Amino acid sequence: MKAALSKGQFVVTAEFYPPKEANKNEVEKRALVLKDVVDAVLVRDNPLAQVHTSPIATATLLLNVGLAPIVQISIRDKNRLAIQSDILGASTLGVKAFFCLEDCHQRVGDNPGAKGVFDLDCVQLISIMKKIEHSLVGTRINPFAHPLELHLVNLSKKINAGVDFIQTMPVFDLERFKEFISLIKG
Question: Does the record's keyword annotation contain Ribonucleoprotein (predicted)?
Answer without folding.
Answer: no
